[in-house]
Amino acid sequence: MPPMNLFVLSLLLLVLPADGAVEISLDDVKQWANLLGEDLYQTFREATKATEIQEMYSNYAQSEVFDPRLELKQNKKDIEEYLKKRSKMAWDAKISLQARPYLNISDDIDLNDPRKSTFVRFMSAKTGANHARLYFDDHYGRVLEANATEVFNYTANANFYGKKTSSAASAVHVPTPQYNRDADLLRKIEWSRIDELYRANRQATRDLSFQLFCSESSFMRYYPATPWVWDNPDPQNPLDLFDCRSTEWYINGATLSKNVMIMLDMSGSMLGQRFEIAKQTIESVLETLSDNDFFNIMPFSKKPYFLDECAEQAFLLQATMRNKKLMRSKLNNVTSEGKAEYEKALAKAFETLLNLRTPVNWTTPEQVATKVLQTGSSGFAQTLTTFGGHVMGLTDEYLAAIKNYTKGEKLGCNNVIMLITDGAPDYYKEVFQLYNADKKIRFFSFLIGDEATDFDQVKWMACTNKGFMVHVANLADVQEKVQHYIKVMSRPVAQQADAIGEADAVWSGIYRERLFYVSPLNAVRPKRVRVALKDPKSEKLVTTVSYPVVHNNTFMGVTGVTVPVIELKQLIPHYKLGGLSYSFMLDNNGYVMFHPQLRPIEPNTKQPKPNYNSMDILELEVPQNQKLLAGHRSVVLGLDYTSEMRSAMIKCDNTDPKELKILYAIDDVGRVYRQTNTYYAECIEGALFTIGMAIAKGDEHRIARRSPPAYGQVQMSWFEGKNWRIHPEWRYCLVNDSDANISPEEAFTIYAKQMREGGALPELCLPRKELVDRLLLDIEVTNSLTNYWDINWEIDIGKGIHLVFFATPTGLIRFADEKLPFVEYEDPNWAEPDNLTAPNDIVPKQMYQHFILDDNKRTSEDSYFQRAVRMRDRIVFDTNLKTKVWYTDETTSAFGHRENVSVLMTATQAIFMDKALVGVVGVEMLYDSLAQTLKKIGCGPGDDKTWCFLLDEHAYIVYSSLNTSRYSSPWATQLGDRKNSHLGKWFGHLNLVTEMTMGLLHERGFYVETTYVDYQALCQDQSYTVAGAMRLLNPFLSTFKSFHWIGRELWSLLTEYTILGVISAIIRPTEAYTASFHDLNEGLPCDKASHFYLANWKEENWESEGHAPVIAESLIPNDRYDKPCKQSAQGCAVKIYASWVPKTNLLLVAIAQKPSADTVSECYNPEKCPMSVPPKFLFGFTQVYNATDKHMDMLPTDPESDAEFENQCRHIRSKERKSPSKCFISNDDEAEYPCSNASLATSTWLLICIFALLSTIRSRT
């Protein structure tokens, strides 16, 4: 035994109390803390060899100071090169398609005749083959199956994260409503076949993602092929309603940014079923708008008005999902006031788009005549008499404002008015001539209702003003009819095709790419689950670059290339920054594309949150200065989106870098840490993106090699054994598609061998040269580390240590593990159940989850790593309640209970060279080892009179000496049994005594209070509509919701309803049709806040101005006994002491009850000593209503009050953003284009298909 440990044990014997009746003092507690700290420190350093690791690195590397500006400029160059390469591939696809001849076969029959050479085949995404089913329009209704000549052979692809793909050909997806053998569709499918180009691109760029083409005819071609993911998991009735034309990348590529004014006719004839169709039409239109667009909704009957009272000042609202949902929620409260005054509504719509702040003067012929008689003049420069006898009085200033109108910088390129009505009484030609003589504002008419027949007026409005008129007869019509407006809005793109260059790439915001989904149809649940399975579709966020394709002056579709966000993250390597600093990326709206604080996945459902792609940068840089107001329902300061920091990020202004004091959260906001950041930004040329760095104060140091790497001297012995890992998702070197079956470690070893043999870095490693060089440094320095660990194994095992590890910022983990001789790592009592009827009935065998191999593979991204680097020079102790181990034989624990399981605990520490982070070293050990050590000290389990705790830096309980504690309690199925375990719980919420103690710890300065506002929270019980993300819920879900409603209503009408029931079902209002506007089961975005209590140490980010750090103290004045339990004052009298455990994150708290031989402690009985009601501490998140603009159920009570208006109408203030750079204004005559689709025929076949499909599914369920 080392001499130091002998000394510690001798001191332990000297301070052991005689029995529970001996009073303890502050000196005792301080002594216990010092002894514990020395024992833990000595054990940890000997086991991990932390000192030796520091010495190893000093021989190969040194600390250096880096310049964030220079680093960011290099990152900017790397990202621009990466994105430019992808955009060029999308551009080349555009050029290739525009140069291809269109299939010149006039006879439609020839395209569908398998006997002829003109027969068109394509590889179907849904079937994975090129077979065809042909329907003949004859008396017999014949169906012919053309057998497949090619079938996709899908194999796992390493460059697509293990997703199965096929490079044989591109796949073609045709939406369900579209007949896939339509002759015109087949011509376009055949024309779009550019697989040679796709294949060449993939061969030239190993890490190239999906290449796409979405046709205006609805089909999508993509390469490489991958199995299609259906929208329902039933293999007998797979459902697919995806349409690529509803994706953001298509709409942004096909159209320009828009200012949309939606006019909703609310005359009496528009009520009932027509109103339901109108609402869905509005929803479908809103689905096509992104944050680059602006809009408003204006119902009108007797008078026109905006749905949102706040909008009277803003006119047009930015089309954020928050604003779209707000408008949609208000549609349910719209009422009719009788006759519709079209002329007034049209004037207000034009005034809104033309930004005319002074409205037109409305008067009557009688009033004009009277004024002329009295004054000799009407007072107007011009008057117009409209249908219905209304007179528009026009002043010179008003006419000049119309003539001199220019759009503000923040608005979209094209102005659009959409009229939703069941018919108009007049043409209102004089109104259109006044405001739109130059036809700069497009007009679209949506004629609503099956019985609507007054086409002429609304058709004239659309046709004369470069728009389109459609007849929306029923709910089934909506989705397809709305697409007509997209086609019209693409005309300027087609007309100005020559003006679109390669530099005019359009980049989308981030979204979930469904091609990365894994289909549940083939998923099989394994009998034994070692690692919790992750849903791949929850993580693969992408941005897509797109270009419009114009063939013979006709818009044909949009090409695109997807870029996974994880690839962009690696181009700003965080290992080159300090341990606390980080990088991020923003889109043109200031929304975060990646950021270490972005939590896009809801932890319970494993699905994206509704607002995962619309989180503003300020909502992730959570300020330290926030405070909760009385009642805990609001905060002192709402986010200021006009802040200098945000503006500097958007403008990429580094002349005066901004500084913020923020709270950094980890463990799903279970812990927060203070740090002060300085922010730098660079704009990405060729895209409207911003990359940024947040450099923490004092964190400008990093490790640098003393000499360049000698690739020829790489030793293969460095890579031997299985006790090392690298980050599973980072690309160190590019790989082959076929490398999916080898591990990242095996792949890197192959490249290391090439380095040694060739004396140079392999070509496929050049794109990540800096990462590879730094990784080689870590591998070389630590190659003998396991030998050091092996020397100490016998001692470690005796102390319950079974795992030692070292992790670096480059993703390398070295570890050594040894099975303890008296421990099992699988549940020895598990037995496979008999008579299982289904795979889901299988009960997986419980197994130990390896701290490294299963739970913490991502080094610097894992919480243990982030905690350690934030507590420099301290060993960070914690309980590991994610897993457990089993004793070979039932064993008596330190708490005196017979146990067959044991809790585990971890200890980690960050290692620095000067001020530069080297890595984090740690151990995992049996929890009983800590309990036994405390038992020797005198603060062990079982003492009824002295209750000891170890609290961590956030006052979570690491140790409790209460003798009811059982190691099996955290996994107990009964709530009462789980309550026996205090591990991991927050100290202040345990009972009244700990609540009082926590209050004293706060008052005395052991902990300081801070408030964290979670702007990424979800709330389940909101009665109002809140913000989400347009790109969040994939467009096919929107269609599915609509069609599912139709099918359900038809089925019910045909089989269950009486005539009265039919009428009721038709006119019954529905809250929402499309998925983006429907209340989701997983909750809606909101803001929540909680107090946190942080350790108060005399260190950077751990000090408080209001509280001087304290080492040890008696918490009750004059070292007296206090009686916290008023209901049982005599049964509970306590002294309380606290002392920090040196060199750790632990605080030792001792609660000593007054000695009494015949009194059993009542301090911890919740019935006799209940907690305060309400609790003294607000620890735990509650919803707050004024932190951002998410709360939307209140209107300003006094719109004239500036403070009231700003509080309730913040959503109308569009945030600073980068406006889309390219605008085309169409001056061409579009008379040759069709301008209406007014057929009274409905999509009958579509209704029948949907009805049959949904009714079949229903009959099976």
From TrEMBL:
Residues 259-489 form the VWFA domain. InterPro entries: Ca_channel_alpha-2/delta (IPR051173), VWA_N (IPR013608), VWF_A (IPR002035), vWFA_dom_sf (IPR036465). PROSITE patterns: VWFA. The keyword Ion transport applies. It is a single-pass type I membrane protein. Residues 1-20 form the signal peptide. Its main location: membrane. GO terms for molecular function: voltage-gated calcium channel activity. It is found in: Membrane. GO terms for cellular component: voltage-gated calcium channel complex. SMART domains: VWA. Pfam families: VWA_2, VWA_3, VWA_N. The keyword DNA repair does not apply. Keywords: Calcium, Calcium channel, Calcium transport, Glycoprotein, Ion channel, Ion transport, Membrane, Signal, Transmembrane, Transmembrane helix, Transport, Voltage-gated channel. This is VWFA domain-containing protein.
